[in-house]
Amino acid sequence: MAVIKANSNDIDLLARLIRAEAEGEGELGMLMVGNVGVNRILSNCLDFRGIRSMREMVFQSPGGFEAVQKPYFYQRARDRERRLARRNVRGERQHPASYSLWFFRPTGNCPPTWFNQRNAGRFKAHCFFQPRRQDCPRVY
User: What is the pTM of this model?
Assistant: First the structure.
């Protein structure tokens, strides 16, 4: 059962995002990026108040994803990433992205906080950051 509304165009959009943001991180890394995207739609808090659709989440400005500014984001979705996107939409969560709303790729170690958000952990090159439960209860 889906945790957010998503039609086939939404699945393609999420598939393109997870590929563009994390293809080099493998399937687990791509699932984590998708997890963050779904969390942003669910959250309705902090930087993501009023984000209710896949399109709004992917193209949010400011605060959106860097990948949408790159040509490789605009490649068509592939079956592999569509399958991963569907898993995200069904609510599958992967630690450390389970409750995360942000991730980035630092040049060194992950900082303990990022814009006042707690470091939830690292997967390969990306650090994931989650809000406090009281700040974004719908994510949890």
Answer: 0.96
